[in-house]
Amino acid sequence: MQVQIWSEIACPWCGLGSHRLDRAVERFEHSGHVEVVHRSLPLGSGLPEDRTLSVREFLSAKYGVIPGQAGVPDIEGMAAAEGLAPYRVLDNRVGNTDLAHEFLAHASAEGRNGEAWNMIFRAYFGKAESIFTLDDLLGFSDDLGLDRDRTRQILADRRYRRQVQEDAHQARQLGASGAPFTVIDDRYAVAGAQDTDTLLGILCQVWDETHPTVLDADNDAAICGPDGCAVPAAHA
Prior knowledge:
236 residues; alpha+beta; Glutaredoxin; 45% helix
C-alpha cells in the first residue's frame, strides 16, 4: 500500500498532518506493508527569495489576523496535545520555500525521502531553524550524508525545479486546493490534516478492499498448487 502526502514544508497543518499520518501507520496492523511518499505542494512561491517575514507579520499583512484572537486555531497547543512539542509556529519566520522543495526532491532521488522531510519539519517547527537559503540546505545535506558539492551544484542549477512544479500540478489535478493532501493507494484522496483515528480508519478500509479475507473452512480440502494437485487425506 502506498500513501502519498503532498505538503508545503512551512505549513503548520502539514507538519501536524505528517505527524498524524506517521502515528496512524504505526498503529496500522499491516504497517510493514505501507510505503509513505512525501511530495511537494509549494504555497509560498510568491514570497520574496531574498528575505523572510515573521509569521505574525505575514498573517497580519495577508489575512488581517492577529495571532491569539478568537477563531484562530491554536495549532501549537493541538500539536503539543498529540506529543509533538515543541512546535514553533507564531514565533517562526516564513519565506519562499521553492529551493527547500528542490532540495527535498534531490534528497528523495538519493533515497532519503521520508528522512529528509521529517528532518526539515523537525528543524523548522521544532527548532524554528531557517530552511530558506542555500547554506541552510547544505547543512541539512551534511546531516543526511549527501555530497555537499554535488548538492550545491544541483541546487544552483535548479535541477529539480520542474519536478517540484510537476508534483504540485499533479496534486491539483487530483483535486488538491491546499495542503496537506493525501492519496492512499490511488483510491482515496484526503484533504487537510485529518486526525490520526480517521487516517487509521481509511488505511484499514483500503486494505480490506484490496486484500479480501481468505476463509479456510476445511484444512483438508482438495487444492491445486504449483507442485500439482493434492488429494484430501480421507480419499488417499
